Amino acid sequence: MNMEILDLGEDKSLLLVDDDEAFLRRLAKAMEKRGFNVEMAGSVAAGKAIATGRPPAYAVVDLRLEDGNGLDVVEVLRERRPESRIVVLTGYGAIATAVAAVKIGATDYLAKPADALDVTNALLARTDGLPPPPENPMSADRVRWEHIQRVYELCDRNVSETARRLSMHRRTLQRILAKRSPR
User: Fold this and answer.
1) Number of domains within the chain
2) In this protein, which residues make up the domain named Response regulatory (predicted)?
3) Structural domain contains residue 5
């Protein structure tokens, strides 16, 4: 793979914002092994506080957090340190949110599950070319399942309304929702 990678340089500060504590710890440990000085935040409020007080050179921000939208952290970080490189992560890969993230100032956008290699490549890749394809893309079944889960959540977990919006039979939707997520 002939991907051009930026050098970390002097400032290796990295802010990780995610409300999934286990994922946050795993990613932090992996990023520390790659030479980053990691600070973790489990909420929008904590992420904004760090971005205001000690704006990092790099950031990885989850889109949907329990106390709000991760794009709020991206906005604060962009105001405080415009040159920072920011990757937005989400379990709900939608084109509209990807466009919103990039317009606000995110460098890249990755769908979960993203591993440390994907995140590192997104943070350090030069922006003048297309990024390489992911090493482990989501399966078509997983993408379908993620879309159904997203619409289900947007419909306040109302099965009948979700089925109507997805143009599928309610019982079929109930069977899909009862199963575990595909890989």
Assistant:
1) 2
2) 13-127
3) no
In this structure, the answer to whether residues 118 and 147 fall within a common structural domain is no
pLDDT at 16 over 70: yes
Lowest mean pLDDT segment, chosen from 32-41, 46-55, 92-101, 147-156: 92-101
- The count of other CB atoms within 10 Å of the CB of residue 16 is 26
Residue 21 · residue 46 · CB < 8 Å: no
Model confidence pLDDT, tens digit, residues 19-40:
888 888 999 999 999 889 999 9
Same domain flag for 70 and 96 = yes
Show the CA angle centred on residue 49, arms to residues 105 and 15, nearest 5°: 55
Full domain range(s) for residue 97: 13-124
Q: SS3 of 173, please?
A: helix
Asked whether residue 164 is domain-assigned, the answer is: yes
Assessment of whether the complete model's pTM goes beyond 0.70:
no
Could you tell me which residues come within 8 angstroms of residue 131 by beta carbon, excluding any fewer than 6 positions away? Answer: 3, 108, 121, 122, 125
Nearest to residue 108, comparing CAs of 97, 123, 118, 94?
123
On average, the pLDDT of the chain sits at 83
On whether the CB atoms of residues 44 and 68 are closer than 8 A, the answer is yes
Query: Which residues contact residue 152 at a Cβ distance below 8 angstroms, ignoring those fewer than 6 apart?
Result: 159, 162, 177
